[in-house]
Amino acid sequence: MTLATRDHAMRMLGVRLRAAGLASPELDARLLVMGVTGASDIEMLREPGTRMSDAEEAHLAECERRRLAGEPVSRILGRREFWGLSFAVTPATLDPRPDSETLVEAALELLRDHPSPRILDLGTGTGCLLLALLHELPQAQGTGVDVSPEALSVAASNAAQLGLSARAEFHLGNWTEGLDGPFDLVISNPPYIRHGDLGTLEREVREHDPMLALDGGEDGLAAYRALALSIPGILTQSGHAVIELGMGQADEVRSLFESAEMCVLRAVPDLAGVPRALVAGRPRR
Ligand SMILES: C[S@@+](CC[C@H](N)C(=O)[O-])C[C@H]1O[C@@H](n2cnc3c(N)ncnc32)[C@H](O)[C@@H]1O
């Protein structure tokens, strides 16, 4: 029989993760205890004395072993919160990043007065960008595209879990190939790491995010080139593209979209002040 309460287990785990030099030990410990016990934030606060079962303690010990071996919490639990919604993540999908919420904010601003927008998410992964938008815009319809069938099946299952399947469809393919437009908004977080820099990424990224989601080719711009060429053909005349930018890529990506006869409106900074989302439209005729 176990004596550990959730609260005690969380504190002790936090101490051990801190001693191991992890960056956010208390948060990791909290998320892991919540993940193995199924407790919500409110239950953790209101019922700190709830005892853990032997099975939960054993599961937590296994989670601790994996975390100490460098696996991110979201990979251990198979879930990540994005835009306040819970998404399944698997080895086939990028672990959604908080910075990408900048794209959702920028897109919502653009779609504020649109009665029933049609949205396209290129490189949908878990579906986090598309599904966050559909969650906020009850009249919107959306299509998520990915070249990875495994990622697409995660996105479809996330849509079902969030009750959004009726308004979301998923398409296996290479960017816009084979799609019927036009769309009012195209959103995309493409792979943008320079091939030669992949080996220098943090271990948690390098070993756990899929290469297909990271590798942007020799100069990191391969996907942007393909997107700049293909997006104008599937946007409505008043439509917009919202594209995630890698660190230091704003000027180069701006030039690519301007060369493709798109009109770049702004680069929206993330919470750290880094230009994160390029907003572009079609030139007025
Ligand atoms: C950086 S991840 C973004 C995932 C998700 N949108 C997010 O923000 O978390 C890029 C995604 O693009 C997909 N991808 C890579 N090449 C592609 C291509 N040629 N056509 C469509 N999707 C592609 C990858 O499989 C991956 O899911």
Give your account of this protein's structure.
The protein is of the alpha/beta class and 285 residues long. The protein folds into two domains: 72 residues, Ubiquitin-associated (UBA) domain (Helicase, Ruva Protein, domain 3, Orthogonal Bundle), CATH 1.10.8.10; 202 residues, Vaccinia Virus protein VP39 (Rossmann fold, 3-Layer(aba) Sandwich), CATH 3.40.50. Helices cover 40% and strands 19% of the residues. Strand 4, helix 8 and strand 5 form a beta-alpha-beta unit. The N and C termini lie far apart (74 Å). S-adenosylmethionine binds next to helix 7, strand 4 and helix 10.
CATH topology of the largest domain: Rossmann fold
Termini, distance in Å? 74 Å
Low-pLDDT regions: none
CATH class category of the largest domain:
Alpha Beta
Order of helices and strands: HHHHHEEHEHEHEEHHHEHEE
Roughly what percent helix? 25-40%
What would you report as the Rg, rounded to the nearest angstrom? 21 Å
What is the compact description of this entry?
By secondary structure, this protein is of the alpha/beta class. It is 40% helix and 19% strand.
Layout of helices and strands:
Elements: H1 6-19, H2 25-37, H3 41-46, H4 54-68, H5 73-77, E1 79-82, E2 85-88, H6 101-111, E3 118-122, H7 128-136, E4 141-146, H8 149-161, E5 168-172, E6 183-188, H9 203-206, H10 211-214, H11 222-230, E7 235-244, H12 250-259, E8 263-269, E9 275-281
Parallel strand pairs: 3-4, 3-6, 4-5, 6-7
Antiparallel strand pairs: 1-2, 7-9, 8-9
Helix pairs in contact: 1-2, 2-4, 6-7, 11-12
The structure holds S-adenosylmethionine (SAM).
